[in-house]
Fold this sequence. Notes:
Helix content: 40-55%
Number of strands: 6
Amino acid sequence: xxxxxxxxxxxxxxxxxxxxxxxxxxxxxxxxxxxxxxxxxxxxxxxxxxxxxxxxxxxxxxxxxxxxxxxxxxxxxxxxxxxxxxxxxxxxxxxxxxxxxxxxxxxxxxxxxxxxxxxxxxxxxxxxxxxxxxxxxxxxxxxxxxxxxxxxxxxxxxxxxxxxxxxxxxxxxxxxxxxxxxxxxxxxxxxxxxxxxxxxxxxxxxxxxxxxxxxxxxxxxxxxxxxxxxxxxxxxxxxxxxxxxxxxxxxxxxxxxxxxxxxxxxxxxxxxxxxxxxxxxxxxxxxxxxxxxxxxxxxxxxxxxxxxxxxxxxxxxxxxxxxxxxxxxxxxxxxxxxxxxxxxxxxxxxxxxxxxxxxxxxxxxxxxxxxxxxxxxxxxxxxxxxxxxxxxxxxxxxxxxxxxxxxxxxxxxxxxxxxxxxxxxxxxxxxxxxxxxxxxxxxxxxxxxxxxxxxxxxxxxxxxxxxxxxxxxxxxxxxxxxxxxxxxxxxxxxxxxxxxxxxxxx
Length: 506
């Protein structure tokens, strides 16, 4: 529950969604009830052999103030108040920072627009379309459908002159199949991975030293400028306070001012997402024009993470320098040129209009009648707070995210079948020089084995839910063995009774 709550708070802070102590405590109770209900459902299952007593009844969680204060210390939350008077104070603080602090930093350091950068990260649901399109409707009915929830985190950084460096790209897998045998150093993005596709302090440090520093050094050398840089960051939890490099000054913006003065939050990111959506549909239209047997559903199934990277790169290339420069107006108005047709709003509206026209060319349910409101709703979906289901998915461990049949012990026969299918797909992919043909074969195998993969997933969930129940009932059943001491051969079966448990386990 605390892991999910920490992610939810960080997500709200990044999206400038107001929260306070009472809201967080209420959210904590909702999340606890969700996880407790999962345990309750399992305990009611006679196959588990566990007590019928409900964890939610036996150890009622109230999210007391003391509990919340301890949570704040563990998660290093200095302040979470963003409502009421605090919001007004933030506006005043932003104005004071622009007029006094930032101006003094620029004058003392002698910084130029080319040497002042701002970095911010954003979530992108890279395989999501407007909700009423038939692609989303059909896929939503499929067992285990999660494509529209598959997210990446993009680390976007630009200077006041309008130059954007290669974006950081955080995915939930280190080596996805689409990148097999590819040199990650030659990708159009700086590749990073995290089981939750979430930016962390370690990844931020990695991006800073391995991407930001080299990119900026090359850029300034080409401009004939000294490597003396100012990097502006917000106070997100994933940003370490100890970043340092000779020639780089790190400046953290005042808390709760990102929506007011942070350049990357002044329309650049939303305009980028509109361009990404437009490019996704543009690629569909181009594929339809060159293939007489084109199937939109088949195309979308083959839209993999490499396809996403291509559209990310194209969206950044479509972003005008004047657009990025204009987004510094609130923080550094003296360097903004205000070129006509370059504002983030104009780029956004143009991309949305083109997306609607492309949708009509594609045709089909939901595409024929797509409107600008549908596209804007899709863009807003990237900024909505994470749902409880999303949080539950993101708090899974890396081992739970990996679907490796060879590690399952519930049914060796089923594991062997799925492993053989996977090996066959790998062999064909390595042997066949034609990627499209090998992908068609892979998709055919996936369709043929879908019923067994669903069965496998169901068995896996049943096996992994038991430790949650054991944890929730620990206080009321102190003699129940802990998760770590449970017999590895029980396959998720009945727990040891208190009378049978050895003294060492108690």
